[in-house]
Design brief:
four-stranded mixed sheet, mainly alpha, Serine Threonine Protein Phosphatase 5, Tetratricopeptide repeat, 661 residues, two-stranded antiparallel sheet
Length: 661
């Protein structure tokens, strides 16, 4: 994050926004800690605070992400005893969330197994690895990199329990997966980690023979070259490649090279993990032996204490999207801290504890999707202040004037001219009465009650997304957060009614009318079918995962950005659908308008039509599976219209607006 004299430490969570937990922000902060090589002192406080925040917010999927990250950190620190309760808690939480048979369950098993292996609990680790392999067969694609990590880490257990042949087979399978899926194997650091592990295994079982040494050297050199070509020589995992190369040099009698590479590895380990870790101690001991050999000019065949092969990087199911250091939301918060907060303390001390502050509503920065292109309209340093009706009547007008007098330039950003629709009653920042703010977005000052399903059904998801997005920087009174939360708590009967409606549209547009329009040769109508199908499926993913946890599907401009972010989170269902929808959209032009001479080789539309229909069928099959896992259907019928009665049978209310059949 860009540092200012008033900005809080970016690794310190907001104590004021306990009602929500932003898993992406947590991951960005954790990445920043590791990037700054301050994990030894800052990672654990961030992880422990995030556990508390996620639990307080009731975001159990987010909590599982934090627990998986904590497993990896404690493992790297050699804190195996502390890690035991983290492992147990993660597995129990995943089971409680009903994640068996999902990618999140597989990832949690992989991380738990690797942590138990590092702790020396080989029986528990092998059992977890076997479970992970069984789960991966149904949850991960054959080219999924997490599957490579599983084979890579399992090989270490096999090596350490004296099963070298099986260990090598696992590593070779991992390398095959990575090489076949990598966009550039010459710069793929996961391939480098696998090469290092293969080099050490070859060395361990080669009895010092020339052929084994030569093969190990080739593998170690390849790992170092990958880090060099990828410009990743400052990465924490580069220490593993250096230590592996040093051990190969030591075994070959080249003590000079061994000392050089061990020293470089030790410096990186100290910086990234600290000097009081098991990893540092093992490498330091190996360095001492290499130095002794150099002094004696009589290097032994191999170091007596083997360098531990570094596991593949900790796997994260959560999205890997990185926000720019100063995005619109961070800019808003910094601006509030620099100017807004001091202004309230100086001029409105009596009211400050009752004023909520944050950034919520319309605008790409409220969703976290803003970028350089967003700066040409309605952008710049801004925030919102929300007051109760009484306080707004007393100070609202003057507070708005004081807000408008704040500096228009901040951190090199200036407020751009507001478009006509964002002025007056449609303004996106400044001072608002709480009820009027939500009325301006939704038409209601607070969310309808559970006994008003007809009003809920009139609220579209994009409207609800705008009312519940963003962040709250301060709300000691809690009145704004309570109202905002009320819009997140969509009654389950309403959610199920919407699920049923989406199933109907998916069936109508994708399964029934799309093939008919393609057969008729009406490309325009077929294209509209694909559009309706994509809208309905993407909406369904949010509804299936429950808006109280993942938020609502935003309007079309940001729909896929939000869907990608959701699909990257741990514990989510239908995470593979996003990429499949994007593939359908890529093929739509050729499928809908590809004549006999269209496309490479003049194959026409036919191959693309078949592929689109195959993907549509696959998405629908995944939806049926998700409905079954949630207990919403007992039917295996793949035409989704026939699934609707099973879903609507779970609606308790007899309100006519909730029932379509």
């Amino acid at each position: 994050m860009t540092a200012t004299t008033t900005t809080e430490d970016p690794t310190t969570p907001d104590a004021s926004d306990a009602s929500t937990f932003d898993v992406n922000e947590f991951l960005n902060r954790l990445d920043a800690v590791f990037a700054s090589h301050s994990a030894a002192t800052k990672a654990e406080p961030l992880l422990l605070d995030a556990m508390t925040d996620a639990e307080n917010a009731g975001d159990f999927a987010g909590l599982l992400t934090v627990l998986n990250e904590t497993m990896g950190f404690y493992r790297s620190q050699g804190r195996h005893q502390d890690n035991q309760w983290i492992i147990q808690r993660a597995i129990e939480l995943a089971l409680r969330l009903g994640l068996e048979g999902t990618e999140a369950w597989t990832t949690t098993l992989i991380n738990a197994a690797t942590s138990q292996r590092a702790a020396g609990n080989m029986e528990q680790a092998e059992d977890l690895y076997e479970q992970a392999l069984a789960s991966a067969r149904t949850t991960l694609a054959p080219t999924d990199r997490r599957l490579a990590a599983l084979h890579n880490n399992y090989s270490m257990l096999l090596s350490e329990t004296d099963r070298p042949a099986k260990a090598r087979a696992e590593l070779e399978e991992a390398l095959h997966i990575l090489e076949s899926s990598s966009p550039d194997p010459t710069q793929d650091v996961d391939i480098a980690s696998t090469c290092t592990n293969l080099a050490l295994l070859t060395l361990q079982n080669g009895s010092g023979g020339e052929q084994a040494l030569s093969e190990a050297r080739t593998l170690a050199d390849r790992a170092l070259a990958i880090y060099r070509d990828a410009h990743a020589e400052h990465s924490a995992h580069f220490a593993s490649a250096l230590a592996g190369a040093a051990q190969v040099s030591f075994a070959a009698g080249d003590a000079v090279a061994a000392v050089r590479d061990y020293e470089r590895a030790l410096a990186i380990i100290a910086e990234c993990y600290g000097e009081h870790t098991e990893y540092y101690a093992v490498t330091a001991q190996n360095l001492a032996e290499a130095r002794a050999a150099l002094v004696a000019q009589d290097a032994p065949a191999s170091a007596s204490t083997a360098t531990e092969p570094q596991p593949a990087p900790q796997q994260r199911a959560e999205p890997a999207t990185h926000t720019a250091p100063t995005n619109g939301m961070q800019l808003a918060r910094d601006y509030w801290l620099a100017y807004g907060k001091p202004m309230l303390a100086e001029r409105y001390a009596e009211f400050a504890p009752r004023i909520a502050v944050g950034l919520v509503g319309h605008g790409s920065e409220c969703y976290g999707f803003d970028d350089a292109l967003s700066h040409d309209h309605d952008s710049g340093p801004r925030f919102c202040m929300w007051l109760t009706a009484d306080d707004y009547a007393r100070i609202g007008e003057q507070l708005q004037a004081d807000y408008e007098s704040l500096p228009a330039q901040f951190h090199g950003f200036a407020r751009t001219a507001a478009t006509p629709r964002t002025q007056g009653a449609g303004r996106r920042s400044g001072v608002f009465e709480i009820g009027e703010f939500f009325t301006s977005i939704t038409g209601y000052p607070t969310a309808p009650g559970e006994d008003e399903p007809h009003l809920w059904m009139m609220l579209d998801e994009a409207t609800l997304a705008a009312a519940t997005n963003g962040r709250v920087f301060a709300d000691a009174l809690g009145a704004f957060s309570k109202t905002r939360q009320s819009f997140k708590l969509m009654p389950d009967d309403v959610r199920l009614a919407l699920v049923s409606k989406r199933l109907g549209m998916i069936a109508q547009a994708g399964q029934y009318n799309l093939p008919r329009m393609l057969q008729r040769g009406d490309g325009a109508a077929a294209w509209l079918c694909i559009s309706e199908f994509a809208n309905a499926v993407s909406s369904l993913v949010f509804l299936i995962n429950n808006p109280v946890t993942v938020g609502y599907a935003p309007y079309y401009k940001w729909r896929f950005a939000a869907l990608r972010a959701l699909s990257a989170r741990a514990g989510m269902r239908l995470t593979g659908v996003c990429a499949q929808l994007e593939q359908v959209l890529r093929l739509a032009s050729a499928a809908c308008f590809g004549g006999a001479g269209f496309g490479e080789g003049g194959a026409g539309a036919a191959p693309n039509v078949r592929e689109v229909q195959r993907i549509v069928d696959g998405i629908c099959a995944q939806i049926v599976q998700a409905l079954q896992e949630l207990g919403l259907t007992t039917s295996g019928e793949d035409f989704l219209e026939w699934q609707r009665p099973y879903v609507e049978a779970h609606i308790v209310s007899d309100a006519a607006c909730l029932h379509s059949l």
